[in-house]
Amino acid sequence: MYCPQPMLHLIQCLSALPGIGEKTATRLALYIMNQTEADALQLARSILEVKEKVHLCSRCFNFADSVECAICRNPSRDAHLLCVVETPGDLMAIEKAGHYKGLYHVLHGAIAPLDGVGPDQLKIKELLQRVSAEAMQEIILATNPTVSGNASALYISQQLISAGVRITRIAQGVPSGGDIEYIDEGTLRSAFDGRREMK
After folding, report:
1. Which of 20, 46, 86, 173 could form a disulfide with 191 if both were Cys (CB 3.0 to 4.6 A apart)?
2. 89 assigned to some structural domain
3. Are residues 173 and 76 in the same domain?
């Protein structure tokens, strides 16, 4: 064995994270080993704190540390505008762009029948209830421009036809097959400015 078992275990845990291979996990483990014990404890505590204190917002299903997230609680947000996204990471990317000032609804995935993900596995029922209960004027479908993201947008638009609300889809300035979470701010701004009606 080229390193102690506890370190091997740390490398295995780190390499299980998305986008982290064995080399990067090894570098991170070495970095952690060179940190002070206080810094290592702070990292461990922050991971535990996230798991203990962060849950889903009761209204939009974003991550929150209280009943509702900070966006839903913010009275300055446009309560008539609702942006539907696949993941909290997509929401964070849109917020970072700083252009959108409405509310959100997080689906927590996209319709993908081959993977066993249908509308019932997503927060679509909650979205439909929310649109009927709140005075929404526009629903912006900002799902990823992938097969499953487009299928989700189409399904949602069909379910909302009778709701009497404007339904738009973000423009395809976002590259096909890409993830909103990794798109630059300028492209996201253009995508929102060029959104169009769903037919």
Report:
1. 173
2. yes
3. yes
